[in-house]
Amino acid sequence: MMLKNDLLLRAAKGLAVERAPVWLMRQAGRILPEYRATRAKAKNFIEFVKNPELACEVTIQPVDILGVDAAIIFSDILVIPEAMGLPYQMIEAKGPWFEHTVKNKTDIDNLKIAEAADLDYVMQALRLTKKELNDRVPLIGFAGAPWTLFAYMIEGSGSKTFSKAKQFLYTQPELSHQLLEKITQSTINYLKGQVIAGVDIVQLFDSWAGVLSEKMYYEFSLKYISKICDALSPLVPVTVFAKDAHYAVQKISETSCNSIGLDWTIDPLTARKFSGNKTLQGNADPCLLYASDKKIIEETQLMLNAFGKERYICNLGHGLYPDIDKEKVKLFVQVVKEYKW
Amino acid sequence: MMLKNDLLLRAAKGLAVERAPVWLMRQAGRILPEYRATRAKAKNFIEFVKNPELACEVTIQPVDILGVDAAIIFSDILVIPEAMGLPYQMIEAKGPWFEHTVKNKTDIDNLKIAEAADLDYVMQALRLTKKELNDRVPLIGFAGAPWTLFAYMIEGSGSKTFSKAKQFLYTQPELSHQLLEKITQSTINYLKGQVIAGVDIVQLFDSWAGVLSEKMYYEFSLKYISKICDALSPLVPVTVFAKDAHYAVQKISETSCNSIGLDWTIDPLTARKFSGNKTLQGNADPCLLYASDKKIIEETQLMLNAFGKERYICNLGHGLYPDIDKEKVKLFVQVVKEYKW
Fold first, then answer.
1. What is the pLDDT of residue B128?
2. Chain B contact for A277 (CB, 8 A cutoff)
3. Fewer Cβ atoms within 10 A, N terminus or C terminus of chain A?
4. Residue in chain B nearest A164 by alpha carbon
């Protein structure tokens, strides 16, 4: 099975490319009317995520509509806590909410280490998507990084500070490591299952990296990300996206990951200096896509030039916001595709 | 009028000190039962802020109870938008909310440039506090940085992304500069009034610096901060605290500010490297104060050693969280006071 467009995989591996590949975090999402139509077929967000046909449908939409160089499976990072025994709800305009949170050793002991089979609906969605994609572009699998999942499992919801989760790290470091280890093992099982089901590359999302200090980040987050990279990178390329962990670019580059996702607060040239030979991914401000066409073209070209053609995957520095005009997204994609380095 | 304890002012000016001064952002706040008792005397948050006697009371409480080396006037950064003609409410557990937001040129034209006299209740609170403090410690005045105030005035409330405010920057750069200029002039008037009313030093809080890219930050935030520094630093020392603007330490050090506030994601030695001869302030993770006494002592001492005795003001990297135990805060203060560099 040869991919017709394997730019993303070559870029991730540091191989030669004709141009940088482009995809966008949250490309399958509310910016597309087609997504909203598919979403309306499910009773709620959780059922949507658990429906392989619907997940496949929205995964492929941006490939057709936006012309991106990769599909990323539609799912949610919190499927892992759920598979471990901690179900959640997605509350409209509020975000995730867990009825039960992890409070002590018993709670941790009661969690199971998830197996790929526990997430069979994701595996089904992946197999279906892989088939429907018909090797047009690579399929990206993903998981939340252990610290980010831990943060939700302790906090029970989103938070500006994640102060409860951090309090747990500060007061219960040993229990924290036990929980992080269980999440890590579950994530490795899950991502290995994704590879068997057909993903060509995986990304770890450490959405809440930025609330930790550098020292805490290495102890409670990067250590586990590194384990996952070691388990997965012999199979498929691995991208680590640690949002707001500006201090960690160099240490992330010392893991066995293949590429490093960057948010828009990090300067491309600075990131190049600290990231060795790793591929970089990012990092346009999503709000740039609110701007005039002229501004989008100018700023995107500056970014493309700063990162260079090789070892680069063009993306935003965070997910698309729901009210961004899809025409602006198409323009962004087009600018990348037409750029001459 | 000689201050009995002028450590903070000497540290801010880079003069010799016996030890580093210590105070804490949000030291006047919900961690103190005494604050909660005073707060209960006012009908709501806005009336609390506008009552000089109550503001004075809670400003002095942490000096008496926690033993900090400075008092910071109890107030709110959003008094400036209000004085410019944009009133707000503080909604319990939600945060600030503006009924009217800035949407276009007419809205900007309709805003007035605030004068110190428009904020007479703050001036009264300052004069009263200065008198009651009886020169025991310096009195810190403050204001929100123009970008942070702009963000609330456009967005109308807090936000994880401030995408509406950023959309305005991207789509209406000229109007954005007009509004930022008006906020800047208002802030200069306000802070000059604070100096006349008795403050010994001022701090600018750029709470939402971190949502901007480096380039946007210089254009839409630091430019105006720099103007305020130029207007105020001939009168009193000025501290700039730009939360999450890790990339901007060097450029902030090139303004006429005296000291730079740091959040806990910035390494002290890295900050020293990029900040020239400026004084640094910060930067313990507030969540450290949830930890055991042993851990608090160890981590605080590491931080004190890393920053060094001179040109350093000990503080947290953000405000105290409401559920932090005041005994832990006292311990933190004590560790600083007893540390031998």
1. 98
2. no
3. N
4. B287
Check CB contact under 8 Å for A171 and B290.
Answer: yes
pLDDT at residue A92 tops 90: no
What per-residue string of b and e applies to B64-75 under the rule 16 or more CB within 10 Å gives b? ebbebbbbbbbb
d(CA B171, CA B150): 15
Q: Among all residues of B, which ones are annotated catalytic?
A: 26, 30, 39, 76, 152
Q: Which residues contact B234 (CB under 8 A, 6 or more apart)?
A: none
- Quick check: helix, strand or coil at residue B319? coil
For chain B, list the domains and their CATH numbers: 7-338 (3.20.20.210)
Q: Which of B171, B214, B245 sits opposite A291 (nearest CB)?
A: B171
Candidates A260, A256, A254; CA nearest to A232 is: A256
| Pairwise CA distance, residues A303 & B194, whole Å | 43
pLDDT (tens digit per residue) in B205-245: 999 999 999 999 999 999 999 999 999 999 999 999 999 99
- pLDDT digits 0-9 by tens, A33-55: 999 999 999 999 999 999 999 99
Question: How large is the average pLDDT for residues B6-22?
Answer: 98
- Which of B161, B267, B287 lies closest to A166 in CB terms? B287
CB spacing of A214 vs B267 below 8 angstroms: yes
Q: Exposure pattern of B183-208 as b/e (b: 16+ CB <10 Å)?
A: bbbbbbbbbbbbbebbbbbbbbbbbb
Output the six-digit token pair for A199. 């993903």
Residue among B147, B157, B170 with most chain A CBs within 10 A, to mutate: B170
Helix/strand number for chain A, H first, E second: 16, 9
Rounded to whole angstroms, what are the CA distances from A113 to A50, A151, A221, B145? 20, 17, 18, 47
> What is the Cα–Cα distance from B252 to A234, expressed in whole angstroms?
44
Asked if B288's CB is within 8 angstroms of A265's CB, the reply is no
Which pLDDT belongs to residue B92? 86
* Distances in whole angstroms, Cα of residue A311 to Cα of each of A8, A21, A282, A303, A315: 10, 10, 12, 14, 13
Of the CA atoms within 13 Å of residue B51, those in its CB half-sphere come to: 15
Q: CA-CA distance, B260 to B280, in Å (whole number)?
A: 5
Q: What is the pLDDT of residues A28-37, one digit of tens each?
A: 999 999 999 9
pTM of the model: 0.97
Q: Whole-angstrom Cα distance, residue A101 to residue A105?
A: 12
User: Of the candidates A163, A213, A264, which has its C-beta nearest B213's C-beta?
Assistant: A264
C-alpha to C-alpha distance for A5 and A133, rounded to whole angstroms: 11
User: Catalytic positions of A, please?
Assistant: 26, 30, 39, 76, 152
Query: What strand order describes the sheet that includes B312-316?
Result: B71-72, B139-144, B201-206, B238-242, B259-261, B279-284, B312-316
- B-chain residues near A321 (CB < 8 A): 161, 163
The three-point CA angle A103-A113-A59 to 5° equals 105
Q: Which tokens is A119 given?
A: 């997430």
DSSP secondary structure of A94-111: TEEEESS---SHHHHHHS
Whether B77 and B45 have beta carbons less than 8 Å apart is answered as no
* Phi-psi region at A85: left, alpha or beta (left = phi > 0; alpha = psi -120 to 50): left
Compute the C-alpha angle B133/B135/B139, nearest 5°. 65
